Amino acid sequence: MSGHEGSVNEADASTLQHISAKVDALLMLCETDSELRNYSLKFKLEQAVDKTAFEAKREAGEEMLHFRRVLQRMADLALHVAPHILRRVRKYVKSKHTSHNGEVSSEKTNTDTLHANSNSLQRSSSVEEFCDGSEAWLESGAHLSYTAVELLCLILVSHPRLVKYLQMYLFECRVLEYIEDALSISREQEITFFQEGYRTEHIRLLANLTLDNEKVCSTIVSNSAILSAILTGTRFDEENPGMVQWAEFTIRNLCCCISEAREIIRQLTPISISDESKELLAGKVDCHINHAGKVVIGKPSHASTE
């Protein structure tokens, strides 16, 4: 689309309110990290300049272009924050394992050294740099990561006429590479460093990205890591409420969009029946996988015969 089509008034007002709240939360949380603080300042300056320029030279039909730029800038913010937190977590985990004395240098020490040898902007803040591994850092990082991904999900559904454009914008910003990386972390790291619903939000993002988008669907189907994460997401996980539903939506989108997805999923062979399913079906039916890889359901073995 050209960017002039439609009206800003068609945007979902409730979603825009949620987006505004998420952006405010992200900017506030960014104050706890030196690199993110710089980026949040850049974001605020660009927003202010763009708004001033738009209001000074507003022309008919320009509202949608301005609205689109604002959403893109918010998406850029989220796509800067989420990977940064993931990298920081991995760096901390690696340093923790390789440290001989078991001590990890605090981020404040690293930041002070960096400031002494750089020309970064001078600023004052009442928010202290949080030491890697501290309770405050873990909580801040978890909220930053979750809020950033949630913001991306909301941006994609903010305006019905911009869905395809925003999907492709995120795709070109390599959002799928980030998602693949984010979903590859270990269960231990997920529980330790990220908040409940971490995987749910990433699968939700995939569901929104794959809606009627052949390019995105084709890329996901050719990526075994992401496809495996989606299929695994159909298994109940108490740490990720709602993930099963979003995984099913994503699979539906893939299968509705491209035939290749239907063929791949049709050819999959089940390897086991989950403990949750066994517990759910206990006493009702017997369920097992035969030599052909098919699920066989029958009467319970203890059922009385007539």
From TrEMBL:
A Pfam family recorded for this sequence: Atx10homo_assoc
Ranges of residues in domain Ataxin-10: 198-296
SUPFAM superfamilies: ARM repeat
Domain of life of the source: Eukaryota
Region of interest (Disordered), ranges: 96-118
Stated name of the protein: Ataxin-10 domain-containing protein
